[in-house]
Amino acid sequence: MGGPEDRKTAKQLLPLAEGARVTRLELFFDLVFVFAFLNVTRLMADDLTERGLIRGMLLLMLLWWCWCSFTWVGNLVRIDQGFMPAVLFVAVAAILVVAVTAPETIVDKPGGISGPLVFPVCYLVVRSLHVGTLWYANHGQPGLRRHLLRVGLPALAAVLLLTASALISLTVGSTQPFPVKATLWTLAVGIEYGAAATVGAQGWRIISAGHWAERHGLIIIVALGESIISVGGSGELVLSPVSWSVLGVGLAGLVITASLWWFYFDFIALAAEQALHDARGAARGILARDAYTYLHLPMIAGIILLSLGVREVLQHIVQPPAAGPDGPLQVIDRAVLFGGVAVFLLGHLGFQLRMLGTVLWSRVVTIVLLGLLIPATGAVPALGLLVLLAGLCLGLVLVERWVLAGSRRAVRGAVLQEQVAHEARETAWRRRHR
């Protein structure tokens, strides 16, 4: 959300500057999302059906909105000054509770407190802190406060829908109708995302393009870290005897994860940040909303689906079904494995198109190929599928390094010159003020 034109903020809140970067407190805030993403993966792994995937994706979309809310706040005021640390710690606590109760967000388990009711309460806390902080920061700016109403009222409507879903659990119990509850959650997600899309250009302001791009790059790293933890830290891998198959799963999973890192960070993210720096005024805010707030979500979802697919491959090898460890995976397992990478690449293509107005056709071809591999690899052993995916990702990396060598050098060279110049200015400043 936006910031005041005269760069003044209310008492105890300090405005962000153009050259601001991510603070340690924001990194601490991101840590809770490692746990949250991990539990979303576990939630879907425990019920790897269409129903389980819907539950996981709906939960992820609302968790993502919680993260985005405080990313907008952090680009308006200094998140580690004044009373903002206290606000952030309360938000972290609420998100942690949501992550703990993730398996019961839509479908309650017998005994204990109502998991579905815990979520709307915690979600209300996070969204209230977000809207309340921006309302306070925009003191004396009635125009911007009116924009906040267009975000705050839909948030309240979303909470009411989530609460209605929870009340179904309390009244109906184990016979709760999942389609009705999933519909209520879908409406809540649609209201939140749709309302943000209708906010006028004045309501979206980016003070520091560097801070904004860095925050979203770091959450991509958090998701990639979760994908490694979800495989390397799973019980099947930790408790299993070391074998070539287990090592192969770990190494192939690492190659795929590293490839996703390369796809995002090698030069597209650098070029996109420069484009965001060049944008001005309301156009910068709208660009940031579309390319980062909206189009980073499918990238996060793709990484989580990939980690789920790799977990399924590992479990298939360590705890083989009747057909044995060399037997094929079910179609839904292949769909999350190949589909996870495809969804990530599709989101990244949208991000590139929105920020730079270009498309990498090598990735379009790869997405189509991944879709074709889902039905075509029914007879391929589980480990073979993972090695095939790793080879495909690595091959795409090598092709793009060769085909895009000139563009990569130009973008990376410009960014390096900017970094060196910034370091020289900082060194000179420190020498003068020591």
Could you characterize what this model shows?
This protein has 16 helices and no strands. With 434 residues, it is mostly helical. The chain has two domains: 1-207, no CATH class; 208-232 and 240-403, I/LWEQ domain (Up-down Bundle). Helix 4 (115-137) runs antiparallel to helix 5 (142-172), helix 5 (142-172) runs antiparallel to helix 6 and helix 11 (281-294) packs antiparallel against helix 13. The chain has helices at 24-46, 50-74, 84-100, 115-137, 142-172, 178-198, 209-232, 235-239, 244-265, 268-278, 281-294, 296-318, 331-356, 361-376, 382-403, 405-432.
- The total strand number stands at 0
Q: Work out the helix count.
A: 16
- The best one-word shape is globular
> Helices and strands: which structural class?
mainly alpha
Distance between the termini: 38 Å
Instruction: Average the pLDDT over all residues and give the rounded result.
Output: 85
- Count of structural domains: 2
**Percentage of residues in helical conformation:** over 70%
Strand content: under 5%
Largest β-sheet summary: none
